[in-house]
Design brief:
Endonuclease, Chain A; 291 residues; alpha/beta; 2 domains; elongated; 11% strand
Length: 291
Amino acid sequence: MSAPEQNGGPTVRRLQLGARLRSLRLAAGITRDKAGYEIRGSESKISRMELGRVAFKERDVTDLLKLYGVTDQREHERLLALAREANSPGWWHSYGDVLTTWFQNYLDLEQAAELIRTYEIQFVPGLLQTDAYARAVIMLGHGTASADEIDRRADLRMARKQLLAREDPPRLWAVIDEAVLRRPIGGKQVLREQIEHLIEACRHRYIRLQVIPFRSGGHAAAGGAFTILRFPHQNLPDVVYIEHLTSGLYLDKREDVDHYAAAMGRLFIEAEPPDRTPDLLREALRALDDD
């Protein structure tokens, strides 16, 4: 269940390399058509490379750098190293039997983020789930899965959490609806342990947790859960992730990200302040005991 410390896997490396190649091409005043011809490809191939949507051949990168007039050997070596890393599987590759491609991409982005802002209306955020709670959530969506598959999926979720124990963990700012604390997923004891875990999480210097109480009425993100990822890498825009039942949606257009960022900002204001969270969690524990 080990997950090595790393700040980005193949998806992020492809995005970094693609963005750098695009900036070099534009600086050299070269069209995508001409660049594609140089590597025995097409304009669309260059477009996919620059968007980080395909694997990179070192020969192609070398040919493009020559075409773009890059003579700095250290830059050559750095970008070729990025190309090799972009083609290397992430630590989650060993969980390929229970991972879809669209969620592998999310894991890659999550590992590389420096700030994770998330809003949840139904479940505790995955990075804050206990093993028992995670298993209960997984069984809701995979009720016919074998015990071994449930174990694998739970192990993967616990492995994800290790990024919060890194020396340079991302900052996690989570807002949850009060309903999350009232819904006894897995039973009362599982929920009780989960809430106690959240109380402990509030002491983590890189975790900020807020609760939107029922009494607040409607709020800015009534449409559903979402996550915004921010990266420390140059040329990588924030990404909004919205998970559906059988797929995940990734948004990185400026107007889309701004819309969700504004909604998240309003949630931070409408939710109870972070220093109130431990008290709200203890109230939820008492409510469990009273039921």
